[in-house]
From TrEMBL:
Key word Hydrolase present: yes
Cited SUPFAM superfamilies: P-loop containing nucleoside triphosphate hydrolases (SSF52540)
InterPro entries documented for this protein: DEXDc_RapA, Helicase_ATP-bd, Helicase_C-like, P-loop_NTPase, SNF2-like_sf, SNF2/RAD54-like_C, SNF2_N
Biological source species: Deinococcus radiodurans (strain ATCC 13939 / DSM 20539 / JCM 16871 / CCUG 27074 / LMG 4051 / NBRC 15346 / NCIMB 9279 / VKM B-1422 / R1)
Record's protein name: ATP-dependent helicase HepA
Amino acid sequence: MTFDIGSMVRARGRDWVVLPESGADFLLLRPLGGSDAEIAGVYAGEGGEEVTSAAFAPPSPAAFGTASGARLLLNAARLAVRSGAGPFRSLSRLGVEPRPYQLVPLLMALRQSPARLMIADDVGIGKTVEAALIARELLDRGEIDRLTVLCPPHLAGQWVEELRVKFGIDAVAVLPGTARRLEKGCNPGQSVFERYKFTVVSLDLVKSDRWRQDFLTNAPDFVIVDEAHASAEGEGMGTKRHQRYRLLEDLARKEDRHLILVTATPHSGKEDAFRSLLRLLNPDFARLPLDLSGAQNERARATLARHLVQRGRKDIAEYLQEDTPFPTRRDAELHYALHPDYAALFDDVLAYARESVHVPGEAQSRTRIRWWAALGLLRALASSPQAAAATLRERAIAADDGETDEAVIDRLGRELVLDPEEGEDSALDMTPGAQVDGEQSETTGRLLTLASRADALAGAKDNKLKLLTAQVQGLVDQGFAPIVFCRFIATAEAVAEHLRGALKGSEVLAVTGRHTPDERVDRVEELARAERRVLVATDCLSEGINLQAAFSAVIHYDLPWNPTRLDQREGRVDRYGQASPEVRVLTIYGEDNRIDTLILEVLVRKHRLIRATLGTSVPAPEEAESLLDVLLSRVLNAQGREVIQPLLFEDVQAFDLKWRDAAEGEKKSRSRFAQNSIRPEEVASELRAVREALGDAHAAQDFVLDALSGAGVSVSPRVDGSFEADPAQADVRPEYRDFLRGARRFRFDAQTERGVTPLARNHPLVEQLASTVLGQALDAPLEAAAKRVGVIRTSKVATQTTLLLLRHRFHLTGRKGNRTWQTLAEELDLLAYAGRAPADGKGGWLDAEATRALLALTPEGNLDPVQKEDRLTRVLADVQGLDGPLMARAQERAAALLEAHERVRGAARGQGVTYSVEPPGPPDLLGIYVFLPLPKLGALS
């Protein structure tokens, strides 16, 4: 027997709803009143389980309740809906409640066919949520059934977790370390990208010859490209970027493929790179004039604006008058002077470094090895005595393997000594090694002597560590939870060990490249449970894990040699969702070590000045590494303790000018392409409709407080807007005990606070409670907290008034080309009439405002149970004759739903996907509530 989508069936002793993807023999079923977690697959073919048609049971007139029970049932039903009928199909299924501004990219994408969009919002605003929201929406509409995220490998874990937790998408990470294992799970001849519907893929993996064609052949029709600026093509951008761009260009050639580019820095003053990204969205953008300013180019700007959204915090902080709280930030620079013994060691190491890079008659390749060894040694010495000692004792890169290719030597040297932005090795934190000559050589003996001197500096003679200890103690005492970022593993481990002994009553943990990605997450989660906590980390944590929930301060113990690292480190905590109203950022530097001051003046301060002026960061020009090469050469060529003043050099001034030009280009780009294709009032209108249909934070608050109160749970409001429940109430039902264990203190607004659970409508605890309350109302009406029927006496009605709580089901059919698919949509609806039921469908019906007002009426009198049951029995009999009017109502709601879908698709209507909406039958009657006027005094016989 075949069952339609949305129809009711009976199996395993309970009623179910048939879901999409069901077939003739295999049914995907959700329990009536149950949640998505209870969805089951049932084989109903020959020899399978018995499945029969079922009808929605009318409410029992004997299981009556109060007016508060009606509101409780309505909110439970709204909050339990996971296939919402509104134009945004996904919002009822998310594990996160998007902020209003995050709906703008979604609306922009829905008005395109296919969606080709660049999301370029600033760091910490939520680009991942915005991009994944588009994917989830198109999945729930049935327009796509597979997706891929292309990203750097170190971000893959974050994407997998975000998709799973917030969007219910179980993706696998296809990385160099996982691809072979995933291949083993495929059928013969089957591609990994065909076998797994949802993938998060290393872009550098699939651009390689081994994987490129396989990916292009089997790539899905929805692709997100994270850190898209790292794939832009332009003059002097290198082979790796060229290969990435060629792959994206080939993906974009498929005209119906959805492509979402995600980047915080799309322009950065590099016009050719910016335009290369725009060409991926629309090949016609290659013909746009170089200068898009002026009235004559207004149409071109408007066309481009439909594909680009780029906003800073100030643009969205109060979008639609809804506060999106970002923390206040306080920055400070702190300097220290070297201990005399440390300064003496620095002089001797610098003297050795000067000698080592000027060996007469040596091959150029060998000179380059010595150069990187010297730079690594100086950087380690500026970091800590432990990093210096480890470097002095270790062999330098390529010192023994006979490598003579200078390009290879320089690549390896940059990865170990500098801070590269891209690639799988972008977070190397091992010490670089300084020994170049043989083990028995005089030079090696000299380095080992210096290493012993470095050992002796640890502790009392490490003024940098003394300064850090005082600062960390002060932050912890003020209630902050700091992260201390170090460049090398040796430094991080030594700092953590010292702080562990110095900070009494505080938990201190180190996370470095010695730990696997999973171990890093576990250690961070373990530390987050401590009341007073300090995390010491290398740059392995500067990307990939958001830490705003548990940490509120950043200390740069070692200055990064790439200013982008500043943003990456600070962006882990300075972002939306930060629980602390204030974030502290401290930058520590040595005033007399000749390395820190150079980095501070040339890179760090200029980077921060641009960010403060522009409101966003602009990466340093490509020449940053070569400029460092020049400046550090001058340090090594200087005599004794001669002070280098880099700002006086012409090459530094030229670099500074180019960086300022890039910032000015970014400023013009942001002004020119400000988001204006979606008006705020459009978002507000759709948002109101969604919240009315599905329930918002207010509905969640009303429901949770009503449900807990009905269960006898004591809840106390607090002055900060949160609520506190008494968990020591063992006599409540198990589902309420589960709730109390998960949320002793909770709130319903956008504020975040440690130890307080934010309960949005989609929070698992709210969903579980709503499904439980609704399920009990349907399956055990006499014991349920929310009653499906009620009789209420009130002075607010002049004649008997009946309120109907309805649940509509719709078949939402989509068509694109030769493909047709069907999804299920649900909607809660309220209807009310005065007097007798208007069987002809005309007259007597209350308008929407008067209908909603009935839910807020307070009972002012009572009837005995026999009278209540009698009234309800008669009303139920009347309502049975309303099939015609209720079917008409269903058709009316179906037409409104179709209009809403077409409205949000805007200009995309007719270009790609078209929809039709049909109700399979009259709505389910969830509840009936009768409101009676108070009797006149003379009638009280």
